[in-house]
Amino acid sequence: MAVSRRENTTALADGALMAALAAGLALVGLFLPPLQLFTNLIWTLPITVLVVRRDLRTGAMATFVAGLLVALMGGLVRAFLLFTQYAAVGLLYGYLFKRGTAPGRMVAAGTAVALISLLSSLAISFYLVGWSPARLASDLQQMPEHVLEMYRQSGILEQMAREGVTAEELRSYLEGMVNYLRRLFPAMLATVALFTAFINYLMAATLLRRLNLSEHRLPPFRYWQLPWYTLWGVIAGLGLTLLGDYREAAWLKTFGLNILYLYLPLVLGNGLAVLTFFAHRLRWSWFLKAAFLMVFLINIPLGLVVVLGLGLFDPFLGWRKPREADS
Predict the structure, then answer these.
(1) d(CA 91, CA 184)
(2) What is the SS3 string spanning 249-307?
(3) CA distance 207 to 216
């Protein structure tokens, strides 16, 4: 009985400490906006550590206490939105690390939860400020006119006219950009969720390994590889885009473009891993690496095509196989 009481007291003390640490990190971001992008990604780490050391129930209680602390010092609405968007990912990762879930499945689950949390946070924000998706779309539609008026008042439009760019050409360009922004908005949200989940996983895995709470260790970046069936997603995106063009179905084309946009950072990262692999395997000198980087920067569009091509076909070609000498 005494041992159980001592364990409960230790768990409460641990929970209180981690709740205070999480609240402190969250408040730093609220009161110092330039740091908010960073603190939003790390303030859940104490919660993740607590779940791994104790259990999910203790982590949830600490999250609630941290939320109360942030609400008292930073405002109820700001605290509610912050915890709605990020807290679930921290709790989920703690649970999955404790179960020893594979990294790929963990990031996939984290992305799904991060996306649901982001959509919930946006819905609450829209409700609080009286916005709606229709009003957002209307505001985006009017953005080209606002930009043109701002350029006109600042004299930029007149200067561009002297260089051969008319107001109508600029309006057409801005309208096209806004149109793509509206159509790709779902994929952009999913990409933000993927980025949030991935960065959270990397930091949590590093911290837990340093605290000897997990043995999760990612392979070197040069061996990161997408599964072979990734290409089917790209094929589906291309197919739907072309079919939408052929049948003049805007919704079908938009769906395909969103799939392609979502796959873009994944394939790009895989291509960079391929380049890193060959740079390491072939023992490139620093001069060759610098020269390759300069060529890439001089002709970025061609470089991106090459990297995307490598990332897309690498899972099928099986170029990268670990060997004893690579460490």
Answers:
(1) 30
(2) CHHHHHHHHHHHHHHHHHHHHHHHHHHHHHHHHCCCCHHHHHHHHHHHHHCHHHHHHHH
(3) 10
pLDDT tens digits, one per residue of 117-141? 999 999 898 888 777 777 777 777 7
Alpha carbon 55 to its chain's center: 27
Say how many C-beta atoms besides its own lie within 10 A of residue 218's C-beta: 13
pLDDT tens-digit readout, 259-305: 999 999 999 999 999 988 888 887 777 777 788 778 878 888 888 88
What residue type is 129 in one-letter code? Answer: V
- Counting Cα atoms < 13 Å in the Cβ hemisphere of 265 gives 11
The model's pTM is: 0.84
Q: How is residue 213 annotated by DSSP?
A: S
**Residue ranges per domain, the chain?**
2-129, 220-327
Question: What gap in Å lies between CA 37 and CA 136, rounded to an integer?
Answer: 23
Q: What token pair was written down for 205?
A: 């895995």
Pinpoint the alpha helices (H) of 130-249.
133-154, 156-162, 167-183, 185-210, 230-247
Q: How far apart are CA 53 and CA 266, in angstroms?
A: 32
Residue 183: closest CA among 226, 141, 220: 141
| CA separation for the pair 111, 113 (Å, rounded) | 5
Q: What is the spatial distance between Cα 275 and Cα 273, in angstroms, rounded to a whole number?
A: 5
Cα–Cα dist 193/184, whole Å: 14
Place of tokens 């801005």: 174
